[in-house]
Amino acid sequence: MILLRSFVFNVGFYTGTLVLMIVFLPILILDRKVLPRCGHVWSSVLRWWLSVAVGVRVEIRGEIPSGPCLIAAKHQSAWEAIEFLRLLPDACFVLKRELTWIPVFGWYISGNRQIVVDRSGGVRALKRMLGEAQIALNAGRQIVVFPQGTRVEPGVAKAYQPGIALLYNHLDVRIIPVALNSGVVWGRNKFVKVPGTIVLEFLSAMPAGLNSRVFIKELSTRIERATGELVDEGRQSAGQF
Fold this sequence. Notes:
Blueprint: H1 2-23, H2 35-53, E1 56-61, E2 69-73, H3 78-87, E3 91-96, H4 105-111, E4 115-117, H5 122-138, E5 142-145, H6 163-170, E6 175-180, E7 196-202, H7 212-237
Parallel strand pairs: 1-7, 2-5, 2-6, 3-4, 3-5
Antiparallel strand pairs: 6-7
Helix pairs in contact: 1-2, 2-3, 6-7
Protein backbone atom coordinates (compact mmCIF):
# COMPACT_ATOMS: atom_id res chain seq x y z
CA MET A 1 0.00 0.00 0.00
CA ILE A 2 2.79 2.45 0.89
CA LEU A 3 4.53 1.70 -2.40
CA LEU A 4 1.32 2.30 -4.36
CA ARG A 5 0.58 5.56 -2.55
CA SER A 6 4.15 6.71 -3.13
CA PHE A 7 3.81 5.96 -6.84
CA VAL A 8 0.57 7.94 -7.03
CA PHE A 9 2.13 10.83 -5.12
CA ASN A 10 5.27 10.99 -7.27
CA VAL A 11 3.33 10.88 -10.52
CA GLY A 12 1.00 13.62 -9.31
CA PHE A 13 3.81 15.73 -7.87
CA TYR A 14 6.02 15.76 -10.95
CA THR A 15 3.11 16.09 -13.36
CA GLY A 16 1.56 18.89 -11.33
CA THR A 17 4.89 20.69 -11.02
CA LEU A 18 5.41 20.56 -14.78
CA VAL A 19 1.90 21.84 -15.45
CA LEU A 20 2.30 24.73 -13.00
CA MET A 21 5.66 25.71 -14.47
CA ILE A 22 4.08 25.90 -17.92
CA VAL A 23 1.03 27.81 -16.67
CA PHE A 24 3.22 30.33 -14.83
CA LEU A 25 5.60 30.94 -17.76
CA PRO A 26 3.99 34.26 -18.80
CA ILE A 27 4.63 35.61 -15.29
CA LEU A 28 8.38 35.39 -15.88
CA ILE A 29 8.14 38.48 -18.09
CA LEU A 30 6.08 40.42 -15.55
CA ASP A 31 7.13 42.11 -12.32
CA ARG A 32 9.32 39.79 -10.19
CA LYS A 33 7.06 40.47 -7.22
CA VAL A 34 4.43 38.21 -8.76
CA LEU A 35 6.69 35.14 -8.69
CA PRO A 36 6.53 34.53 -4.90
CA ARG A 37 2.77 34.05 -5.30
CA CYS A 38 3.48 31.29 -7.82
CA GLY A 39 5.81 29.61 -5.33
CA HIS A 40 3.12 29.87 -2.66
CA VAL A 41 0.64 28.11 -4.93
CA TRP A 42 3.11 25.34 -5.78
CA SER A 43 3.96 24.79 -2.12
CA SER A 44 0.32 24.78 -1.03
CA VAL A 45 -0.59 22.25 -3.72
CA LEU A 46 2.31 20.03 -2.62
CA ARG A 47 1.22 20.11 1.02
CA TRP A 48 -2.35 19.21 0.06
CA TRP A 49 -1.26 16.41 -2.29
CA LEU A 50 1.17 14.97 0.25
CA SER A 51 -1.69 14.76 2.74
CA VAL A 52 -4.17 13.23 0.31
CA ALA A 53 -1.89 10.78 -1.48
CA VAL A 54 0.42 9.69 1.34
CA GLY A 55 -1.25 10.73 4.58
CA VAL A 56 1.42 13.19 5.75
CA ARG A 57 0.53 15.96 8.21
CA VAL A 58 2.61 19.12 8.60
CA GLU A 59 3.15 21.03 11.84
CA ILE A 60 4.98 24.36 12.12
CA ARG A 61 6.36 25.31 15.54
CA GLY A 62 7.90 28.50 16.80
CA GLU A 63 7.46 32.01 15.48
CA ILE A 64 7.70 32.41 11.72
CA PRO A 65 10.10 35.35 11.26
CA SER A 66 9.01 38.52 9.52
CA GLY A 67 11.21 41.20 8.01
CA PRO A 68 14.77 40.73 6.75
CA CYS A 69 16.65 37.87 8.38
CA LEU A 70 18.78 34.85 7.59
CA ILE A 71 17.27 31.41 8.16
CA ALA A 72 19.79 28.61 8.76
CA ALA A 73 17.81 25.42 8.21
CA LYS A 74 18.45 21.73 8.51
CA HIS A 75 18.09 20.07 5.10
CA GLN A 76 16.83 16.47 4.86
CA SER A 77 14.61 16.43 1.77
CA ALA A 78 13.20 18.50 -1.06
CA TRP A 79 10.12 19.17 1.06
CA GLU A 80 11.47 22.03 3.20
CA ALA A 81 12.81 23.97 0.23
CA ILE A 82 9.31 24.02 -1.22
CA GLU A 83 7.59 24.60 2.14
CA PHE A 84 9.59 27.79 2.75
CA LEU A 85 7.96 29.23 -0.38
CA ARG A 86 4.64 28.98 1.43
CA LEU A 87 5.82 30.07 4.87
CA LEU A 88 7.81 33.14 3.83
CA PRO A 89 6.46 36.10 1.83
CA ASP A 90 9.49 36.33 -0.49
CA ALA A 91 12.05 33.63 0.22
CA CYS A 92 15.55 34.04 -1.21
CA PHE A 93 17.62 30.83 -1.26
CA VAL A 94 21.37 30.42 -1.32
CA LEU A 95 21.74 27.56 -3.78
CA LYS A 96 24.27 25.86 -6.02
CA ARG A 97 24.69 27.00 -9.61
CA GLU A 98 23.90 23.55 -11.02
CA LEU A 99 20.21 24.01 -10.15
CA THR A 100 19.96 26.83 -12.68
CA TRP A 101 20.81 24.34 -15.42
CA ILE A 102 17.53 22.43 -14.94
CA PRO A 103 15.30 23.17 -17.96
CA VAL A 104 12.50 25.67 -17.22
CA PHE A 105 13.01 25.37 -13.45
CA GLY A 106 16.26 27.28 -13.81
CA TRP A 107 14.37 30.15 -15.43
CA TYR A 108 12.32 30.58 -12.28
CA ILE A 109 15.46 30.61 -10.12
CA SER A 110 16.92 33.39 -12.25
CA GLY A 111 13.65 35.28 -12.53
CA ASN A 112 13.09 35.24 -8.77
CA ARG A 113 16.62 36.52 -8.05
CA GLN A 114 17.93 33.71 -5.90
CA ILE A 115 21.54 33.76 -4.67
CA VAL A 116 23.38 31.36 -6.94
CA VAL A 117 26.80 30.17 -5.75
CA ASP A 118 29.54 28.72 -7.93
CA ARG A 119 31.14 26.33 -5.47
CA SER A 120 34.35 26.28 -7.51
CA GLY A 121 34.55 30.07 -7.66
CA GLY A 122 36.62 30.56 -4.48
CA VAL A 123 36.86 33.99 -2.84
CA ARG A 124 35.27 35.79 -5.77
CA ALA A 125 32.14 33.63 -5.49
CA LEU A 126 31.91 34.30 -1.75
CA LYS A 127 32.18 38.04 -2.24
CA ARG A 128 29.43 37.90 -4.82
CA MET A 129 27.28 35.89 -2.43
CA LEU A 130 27.71 38.53 0.28
CA GLY A 131 26.80 41.34 -2.09
CA GLU A 132 23.67 39.60 -3.36
CA ALA A 133 22.65 38.66 0.18
CA GLN A 134 22.87 42.30 1.25
CA ILE A 135 20.73 43.36 -1.71
CA ALA A 136 18.10 40.77 -0.76
CA LEU A 137 18.08 41.94 2.87
CA ASN A 138 17.79 45.58 1.82
CA ALA A 139 14.70 44.56 -0.13
CA GLY A 140 13.20 43.07 3.05
CA ARG A 141 13.55 39.43 1.99
CA GLN A 142 14.30 36.42 4.19
CA ILE A 143 17.37 34.47 3.06
CA VAL A 144 17.27 30.68 3.47
CA VAL A 145 20.61 28.91 3.86
CA PHE A 146 21.20 25.18 4.34
CA PRO A 147 24.48 25.38 6.32
CA GLN A 148 25.50 21.77 5.69
CA GLY A 149 25.38 22.49 1.96
CA THR A 150 23.27 19.48 0.98
CA ARG A 151 20.51 17.17 2.13
CA VAL A 152 21.57 14.96 5.05
CA GLU A 153 19.66 11.84 6.11
CA PRO A 154 18.40 11.63 9.70
CA GLY A 155 21.09 10.33 12.02
CA VAL A 156 23.95 11.04 9.58
CA ALA A 157 26.63 13.49 10.73
CA LYS A 158 27.95 16.16 8.36
CA ALA A 159 29.98 19.27 9.13
CA TYR A 160 28.48 22.74 8.85
CA GLN A 161 30.13 24.75 6.07
CA PRO A 162 32.08 27.98 6.79
CA GLY A 163 29.91 30.01 4.41
CA ILE A 164 27.24 30.44 7.09
CA ALA A 165 29.84 32.01 9.42
CA LEU A 166 30.87 34.38 6.64
CA LEU A 167 27.29 35.58 6.31
CA TYR A 168 26.98 35.88 10.09
CA ASN A 169 30.14 37.98 10.38
CA HIS A 170 29.45 40.35 7.48
CA LEU A 171 25.69 40.86 7.56
CA ASP A 172 24.05 42.80 10.36
CA VAL A 173 20.95 40.61 10.53
CA ARG A 174 19.19 38.06 12.74
CA ILE A 175 20.15 34.39 12.23
CA ILE A 176 17.20 32.07 12.86
CA PRO A 177 18.04 28.32 13.20
CA VAL A 178 15.46 25.82 11.95
CA ALA A 179 15.16 22.16 12.91
CA LEU A 180 12.96 19.59 11.16
CA ASN A 181 12.31 15.90 10.60
CA SER A 182 11.16 15.75 6.97
CA GLY A 183 13.66 13.01 6.13
CA VAL A 184 11.66 10.53 8.19
CA VAL A 185 8.78 10.57 5.70
CA TRP A 186 10.46 11.97 2.57
CA GLY A 187 13.98 10.60 2.46
CA ARG A 188 16.86 11.96 0.41
CA ASN A 189 16.46 10.63 -3.15
CA LYS A 190 13.89 8.12 -1.88
CA PHE A 191 10.95 7.06 -4.06
CA VAL A 192 8.88 5.86 -1.10
CA LYS A 193 7.10 8.46 1.04
CA VAL A 194 5.91 7.30 4.48
CA PRO A 195 2.75 8.44 6.31
CA GLY A 196 3.47 10.49 9.41
CA THR A 197 3.91 14.06 10.67
CA ILE A 198 6.56 16.44 9.40
CA VAL A 199 7.50 19.06 11.99
CA LEU A 200 9.45 22.21 11.13
CA GLU A 201 10.50 24.30 14.12
CA PHE A 202 11.84 27.87 14.17
CA LEU A 203 14.29 28.18 17.07
CA SER A 204 15.39 31.30 18.95
CA ALA A 205 17.74 33.69 17.14
CA MET A 206 21.48 33.25 17.44
CA PRO A 207 23.35 35.72 19.68
CA ALA A 208 25.46 38.39 18.00
CA GLY A 209 29.20 38.91 18.42
CA LEU A 210 30.46 35.31 18.42
CA ASN A 211 33.64 34.37 16.61
CA SER A 212 33.26 32.05 13.63
CA ARG A 213 34.25 28.83 15.39
CA VAL A 214 32.01 29.41 18.39
CA PHE A 215 29.13 30.49 16.14
CA ILE A 216 29.24 27.35 14.00
CA LYS A 217 29.52 25.12 17.07
CA GLU A 218 26.56 26.81 18.76
CA LEU A 219 24.46 26.83 15.59
CA SER A 220 25.09 23.16 14.84
CA THR A 221 24.47 22.16 18.45
CA ARG A 222 21.11 23.93 18.54
CA ILE A 223 19.92 22.59 15.21
CA GLU A 224 21.19 19.03 15.66
CA ARG A 225 19.80 18.68 19.18
CA ALA A 226 16.34 19.93 18.19
CA THR A 227 16.40 17.91 14.97
CA GLY A 228 17.27 14.73 16.85
CA GLU A 229 14.24 15.21 19.10
CA LEU A 230 11.97 15.87 16.13
CA VAL A 231 13.29 12.83 14.25
CA ASP A 232 12.50 10.59 17.25
CA GLU A 233 9.03 12.12 17.40
CA GLY A 234 8.57 11.71 13.65
CA ARG A 235 9.58 8.06 13.69
CA GLN A 236 7.01 7.38 16.38
CA SER A 237 4.28 9.07 14.34
CA ALA A 238 5.37 7.10 11.26
CA GLY A 239 5.48 3.82 13.19
CA GLN A 240 9.21 3.30 12.52
CA PHE A 241 9.99 2.13 16.06
